[in-house]
Design brief:
The protein contains seven helices and eleven strands. The protein is an alpha/beta fold. It has one domain: Spore Coat Polysaccharide Biosynthesis Protein SpsA, Chain A, CATH 3.90.550. The strands form two sheets. It has a seven-stranded mixed sheet with strand order 3-2-1-4-9-6-10, with helices on both faces. The protein has a four-stranded mixed sheet with strand order 5-11-7-8. A hairpin with a 4-residue loop joins strand 7 and strand 8. It is globular, with a radius of gyration of 16 Å. 42% of the residues are buried.
């Protein structure tokens, strides 16, 4: 597989389905999606209803893979347990992150993958993200509080080797620091912002659960 996308889920049923639709609508193939419920009733319901089974069949026809599971206990901590499990499960050469209250454009996988596949020396790529509540683009940066999971694409083999995520809020920054300390070659990309953050603490998305 070229790419693994990790989607931790807890509640937000409408936004979770929207996120899954974003994955299914990507304009390239050769990817793996791992959707993990953090003891999430909504994910459990989708599993039991056959929702994922139908999507999995579509994925197979296109050369993709969709994996869905639900943990028996809730771990809180910003989905860190799901993130750690998905990293270790990943079969894609590259790994990216997706929050179930955000959206990605149809060319998101292509946007992140293309420059990485063109230069195998790059281990960690950092991309712009669109902050929809502020109608502004968050540029790629290497500063605490200025970079997060949404902007990252990393070689899966390296992500597996560094210390796992913790339940702390800044675990994405610590993850980046651990990658850099391990010797990862990092590059910042000034491309289109194809990851769209729909909510921030001060301005939450309305009209959807």
């Amino acid at each position: 597989m070229r790419l693994t996308i990790s989607l931790p889920c807890y509640n937000r049923p409408q936004r979770t389905k929207r996120a899954i639709e974003c994955i299914m609508n990507q304009n390239i193939n050769g990817w793996e999606a791992i959707i993990g419920g953090d003891c999430c009733p909504n994910v459990q319901s989708l599993m039991e209803s056959g929702y994922f089974r139908d999507l999995q069949q579509t994925c197979v026809q296109r050369g993709n893979t969709l994996i869905a599971y639900n943990l028996p206990t809730n771990n809180k901590g910003f989905g860190y347990a799901i993130t750690n499990k998905n990293i270790q499960m990943a079969s894609g050469k590259y790994f990216i992150f997706f929050a179930n209250d955000d959206v990605i454009k149809e060319n998101h996988f292509q946007n992140y993958l293309t420059p990485m596949e063109q230069d195998d020396n790059i281990d960690l790529g950092i991309f712009p993200t669109l902050l929809e509540p502020f109608q502004g683009v968050k540029p790629p940066m290497l500063l605490l509080g200025s970079v997060g999971h949404s902007q990252l694409i990393v070689k899966s083999e390296l992500a597996k080797e560094v210390p796992p995520h913790s339940p702390n809020y800044d675990h994405d920054w610590v993850f980046i620091q651990n990658l850099i300390q391990s010797g990862a070659n990092v590059k910042l990309f000034e491309t289109e912002a194809t990851y769209v953050v729909k909510s921030v603490p001060a301005k939450l998305e309305v009209g959807i659960d």
